[in-house]
Specification:
The protein is mainly alpha-helical. It has 14 helices and 2 strands, in the order αββααααααααααααα. Strands 1-2 form a two-stranded antiparallel sheet. Helix 8 runs antiparallel to helix 9. The longest helix is centred in the N-terminal third of the chain and has 37 residues, at about 1-40. It is globular. It starts with a helix and ends with a helix. Keywords: Cell membrane, Membrane, Transmembrane, Transmembrane helix, Transport. Belongs to the binding-protein-dependent transport system permease family. CysTW subfamily.
């Protein structure tokens, strides 16, 4: 009987994990295996998928300069978006973490408020702000600063602006969690040793908040690299990102093999970035921001 109890205790963690493992297997691993298999099939001239093991899709994706340029443009847009989110997001995160107001919970709810609105609606709202008939052009025309509407939409700048609008709360929350965990006595100790406010921030607060800043940067970069809604709505023909190519191949051209190869290229690239982050910083900080 004791052996049976010991055996049950040994297998208890796996029994408790089995619902999650089955869910992950059916919703993540099996679909991913289908994508890998699809990437080696071939799209024929008749529109049918030819089953087999062909490297044509991979040769096209890895050798065609068009795909390489779009990938580099995607990484560039994601990089600038992440930098802007880090610089702009640190300030409100620092304010919320160090405020002496009693309504800190209210401020956190305000930070979460954008998540209650559809991402597509938030993105399309920029058309009413920056469009030729939008609020900014209407105000400038009414004041008399300009004689005709400015073309402020459908370029790379508006794509980055839309991505910053979408991803900024992720950055703020991650930095806030990191700042909230810093012992305030450390800053006071630095000031008692002769540091002024800025020196205490530079030598104590900023280094200790780096894990949250890194976690927020990782989230912003990965999410920005994989988006296709923002460049589709706010970008022009030359502002497509890599996810737009995947969407075009699968939805418009119905070329599942090519679309699968494209998606796996982006997945491997972003996965490598996550592995590097996990190797040196860990994923604990990202998990903390969603607790």
């Amino acid at each position: 009987m004791a052996a049976g109890v010991a055996r049950a205790q040994k297998h208890a963690p796996w029994i408790l994990l089995s619902p999650s493992l089955v869910t992950i297997g059916f919703l993540l691993i099996i679909p991913m295996m289908f994508i890998v298999v699809y990437s080696f099939w071939l799209r024929t001239a008749t529109g049918a998928d030819q089953v087999g093991f062909y490297l044509d899709n991979w040769q096209e994706v890895l050798s065609d300069r068009f795909y390489r340029d779009i990938l580099l443009q995607t990484l560039k847009i994601a990089f600038f978006t992440t930098i802007i989110c880090a610089v702009v997001g640190y300030i409100p995160a620092y304010f919320v973490a160090n405020t002496k107001m009693r309504s800190k919970t209210f401020l956190l709810i305000m930070l979460m408020l954008p998540f209650w609105i559809s991402y597509i609606i938030r993105t399309m709202s920029w058309i009413n702000i920056l469009g030729t008939s939008g609020a900014i052009n209407g105000l400038l025309l009414w004041v008399g600063i300009i004689d005709s509407p400015l073309n402020m939409l459908y370029n790379q700048t508006t794509v980055i602006l839309g991505l910053v609008h979408y991803l900024l709360p992720f950055m703020i929350l991650n930095v806030y969690v990191s700042l909230e965990g810093i012992d305030k006595n450390l800053t006071e100790a630095a000031e008692s040793l002769g540091c002024n406010g800025f020196q205490a921030f530079r030598e104590v607060t900023l280094p200790l908040s780096f894990p949250g800043l890194a976690a927020g940067s990782l989230l912003c970069f990965v999410l920005a690299s994989g988006t296709y809604i923002t460049p589709l709505i706010l970008g022009g023909p030359r502002d497509a990102m890599f996810a737009n190519l995947v969407f075009e191949a699968i939805i418009t051209q119905l070329n599942w093999p090519l679309g699968s190869a494209l998606s796996l290229v982006l997945l491997v690239l972003l996965g490598a970035l996550v592995v590097i982050y996990t190797r040196y910083l860990g994923v604990d900080q990202i998990a903390k921001s969603f607790r």
